[in-house]
Amino acid sequence: MTTHVYLKYAIALLMEEYGLQTEQDITFKEIKEELEKGLNAFSVKPIGDYCGQTKVSYGFTKEKNNAKKYIFLAPNTIASEMKASNLYNVVCKICSEENVDLLAAHDISQSEVPISGEFNRFTDNGTIQRGQSKATVFDQCLALITTTTVLKPSLQYKSGAGKISMDNTCLIPDLDISDLRDFIRLFKRIRIQKLDSSLMVGKVECEEKTLKYIPKRPNIFRGNFPNAPHSSALGSVALLGAIGEMTKEKDVSELAVRVLESLKECNFYAIKYGDASVFSFNHSIIRLAERGKLRRIVDSLYYVVLYKEGRRSTNNAFEYQKFDLFASRFLQMFKRPTFKDFLAFRAEYPYDIELLLNTYFCDMEKIDKEIVTSAKELGKWLNYVAYRSAKKEVGTSSGDVFIKAKAKILIELESSVFSAKSGDALIAYTITRAGRLSGFDAPTEASLFMEKAASGELLLEQAKNLLIAFSRLKSKIEEADKVTSSDNQSIENEEMTEDYSNI
Fold this sequence. Notes:
This protein is of the alpha+beta class. It folds into two domains: 5-286, no CATH class; 347-493. 46% of the residues lie in helices and 13% in strands. It is built from 18 helices and 15 strands. It has helices at residues 5-18, 28-40, 84-96, 137-148, 177-194, 235-245, 253-262, 283-290, 294-301, 317-333, 336-343, 354-364, 369-394, 400-419, 423-438, 447-455, 460-471, 476-481; strands at 43-46, 55-61, 72-73, 105-108, 119-122, 128-131, 133-136, 154-159, 165-173, 201-206, 213-215, 268-272, 275-279, 305-306, 347-348. It has a five-stranded antiparallel beta sheet, with no helix packed on it. Strands 8-9-12-13 form a four-stranded antiparallel beta sheet. Helix 6 (235-245) packs across helix 8 (283-290), helix 10 runs antiparallel to helix 11 and helix 14 packs antiparallel against helix 15.
């Protein structure tokens, strides 16, 4: 039996699509048919005339990619724009054959398996040569199926600053064949039932000097699954959230729960051309997905505002990219080191992040729920103090002016928390500072937290983290006032804002 995750995925796909019982039942007929499906979705191209338009619809095509003609390599094709022709030619060659010897030996190239490569080998006469991985034609075909099929979670991963790297990346779980079949069956249903047609729509921009209309890559490059994230760094967690949403669907809820259960003990592989990384999900995060809560948490992370940067824009994209990366690591691992990295980014959170914080402190820090609730009340009060103080300072001003004013106050309050050397000092400094700013007393609901922190029953580090994290939650009162109205947009209805530059 084949054990490599990349090849095993193709086996499960063939068995699921053609109703086969074992790996030995796979023939060249099924392989060829599946490769033809992948070839038919090799690229995406604009449909119809886009001149004078602001948007254009895209469709899958069998044509070889050519970015200069706005025929882009589809996100499910795991290759680079420059190297894809090798992959294209190999698949076309196999699809033109009537039959092949699946057991024949074959040298595996990186075009066929994105994570394969050359290595040094010694000959009988003592010389050193470059060699490729050895396999069978059967393994080659399996690799090509996984590389090209649309029936796998895929997105274009963006990284770097300046000249941004954009890599087609797939997310594959390392499960046994039966669980993989369940995963593929559910993913297929997700695509059929939930894949928004707007994902096949791209922007059209007009050059001012030449009046030339340029179609940009469609939204499916964010991810070929529902509720794909605005940031590619959050793609894996967003996929888990999409699966969690399917637990609400009566016809597939049982299947979705079964898939989520299988993911508790497995590694995920993020595979792109020339590289692969492995990750897994903490049980607490999977439980949030099972409850249908994870999607909203992931969506809300897009609206986090870094104190020093203000709202997301093209000018601060790299800083937000770093935040998204650490947020993703926190959501995946859900451990104290990754939480500290997440907290190190000074920022204000949308109110929907409350559930994530509650889950972390209760499940991972093992802090009593009543203490967490009490700390949350004090944190909410601190955020409201900053809100009222900023509103008093800038008056009717809104947008970035208000954000900067409020951030300044929150940083001052956080500094008081960080500088405290004991629990009682933490409470005294923070309450005194906030009281002077607002003229208000701390809420009585915060008494339990203050008591436990001041007495030392609650560890000082835990008390600081609780207070800082919850003080960053934007209050419901502020959201109701719509002081920063753009932060309250519904992601479901928001247009895609990322610029997938044509390269």
